[in-house]
Q: What sequence folds into this?
């Protein structure tokens, strides 16, 4: 037990990265001509509704996911990684100050940094390596004999429950949840936030915010150049 490392678990999109890796990847794939230009119209309507406060972000991101799944078949893995590198080169530093500083502090304290995201793993790996993560879990997409995507997802059930991934990582990497930290921004992160000793809800959506207040979890909001730390009742 003395040899086990403490773990810090992070969601990535909206928690560290101030956008979505998948959204930016799809944009680049369209620009490259790997996805058809008209694919942008398939999610643009939901994007505008979200920006105009007439729709929600979940509908927007699901429209982007649908475009990705509908067009990734036949794309060469090498082209996918070329697009992923461009995304990371462009947007690596579009991150939140609070979580970047938290990562630096945790690394100094010897924490094992674990990233769990529903963004494509290849893109996630590039982004998280530069940030300083030790291990990443993301969406895995199957490639065939020609190293082109088949359009199928590998082990989707694993990424659907982030708590299962945490248990798996702790067993494989020799980690302990004693003194553990977790950072998430949506209700999809509740499963692993419930496991850690210090759950932090960063810029949470409404569902996670309500749950956090009931549980007395930390709520942190970063707006422009100000970081607000809220107590369990939601006051500063």
A:
């Amino acid at each position: 037990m003395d040899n086990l490392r403490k773990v810090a678990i992070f969601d990535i999109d909206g928690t560290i990265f101030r956008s979505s890796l998948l959204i930016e990847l799809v944009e680049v794939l369209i620009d490259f001509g790997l996805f058809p230009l008209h694919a942008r119209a398939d999610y643009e309507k939901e994007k505008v509704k979200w920006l105009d406060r007439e729709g929600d972000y979940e509908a927007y991101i699901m429209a982007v996911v649908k475009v990705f799944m509908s067009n990734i078949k036949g794309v060469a893995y090498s082209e996918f990684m070329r697009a992923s590198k461009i995304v990371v080169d462009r947007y690596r530093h579009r991150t939140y100050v609070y979580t970047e500083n938290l990562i630096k502090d945790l690394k100094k304290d010897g924490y094992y940094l674990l990233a769990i995201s529903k963004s494509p793993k290849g893109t996630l790996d590039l982004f998280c390596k530069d940030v300083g993560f030790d291990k990443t879990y993301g969406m895995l997409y199957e490639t065939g004999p020609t190293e082109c995507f088949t359009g199928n997802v590998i082990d989707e059930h694993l990424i659907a429950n982030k708590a299962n991934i945490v248990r798996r990582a702790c067993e494989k990497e020799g980690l302990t949840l004693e003194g553990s930290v977790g950072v998430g921004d949506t209700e999809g992160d509740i499963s692993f936030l419930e496991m850690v000793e210090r759950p932090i809800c960063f810029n949470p959506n409404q569902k996670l915010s309500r749950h956090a207040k009931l549980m007395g979890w930390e709520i942190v909001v970063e707006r422009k150049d100000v970081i607000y730390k809220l107590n369990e009742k939601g006051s500063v």
